[in-house]
Automatic annotation (TrEMBL), chains A, B:
Pfam families: Pyridox_ox_2
Protein name: Pyridoxamine 5'-phosphate oxidase
Length: 138, 138
């Protein structure tokens, strides 16, 4: 569907395919009653959950473990005035099962930041929405 | 200051200088009690407020006019495993003063989406934080 304002809604499969291409996305959550956002490395798990790796002692873990968050990734090209964005909304939870943790050590995301006490956080892909801006004349 | 986890905190001036380079950032807010995020074109006003242009009838206007939101922009390079992100947190408000609206029509941001009923929204730069990931060996 192309909207009159120049963007096209993406279906869930398109969204997940685009998400899988990006190394960095942004966790959107609430911290001390204020809206907060943090770029992080991520990967998609086999059930399409977003998986992050962060320090066990981080503010992020305290803020999002067990609560619903949004996760966004996008890719825009200024010269074409075009691009896409995808948002996953769902419950975030630290992976506590040792077998799951081991599996994600092999298959999960690698953080660009050195990490001594890394934990994995899964964000369930309960709601996946996206849109593509197809480029409009200046 | 360089943190042990590989990033450096940016001061307010560095943050604003980096922000000014980017054509797209992300508004972070709450919609129907859920965290929400939307990429938008923006510019910085002379007092460092973030200025967006959106449709007067948009969900975004209804959700953020008069409330505190976050605004994020970043730039990461996968090959260097490096980049920066900046977050502005402050009150958002639709520009209702006709003279201010006229001024922003000349100097404000241009949306990549065609806009028939555009209004400007200012986000006051009450809190500006940023960090730079300086690149670490793989």
């Amino acid at each position: 569907m192309i909207h009159s304002d120049g963007f096209r809604a993406l279906d869930r499969q398109e969204c997940l395919r685009l998400l899988a291409k990006m190394p960095v996305g942004r966790v959107v959550y609430t911290r001390q009653a204020l809206p907060a956002v943090l770029p992080v490395n991520f990967s998609l798990d086999t059930d399409s959950a977003v998986v992050l790796c962060t320090s066990a002692a981080s503010d992020l873990v305290r803020a999002i473990d067990g609560v619903v968050v949004a996760f966004e990734a996008d890719d825009f090209q200024a010269e074409r005035r075009a691009g896409w964005s995808v948002v996953v909304t769902g419950r975030a939870a630290v992976v506590t099962d040792p077998a799951e943790h081991e599996r994600l050590l092999r298959t999960g995301p690698r953080s660009w930041m050195p990490m001594h006490d890394g934990v994995f956080i899964r964000i369930e892909a309960e709601m996946v929405t996206g849109r593509e801006l197809t480029g409009v004349p200046g």
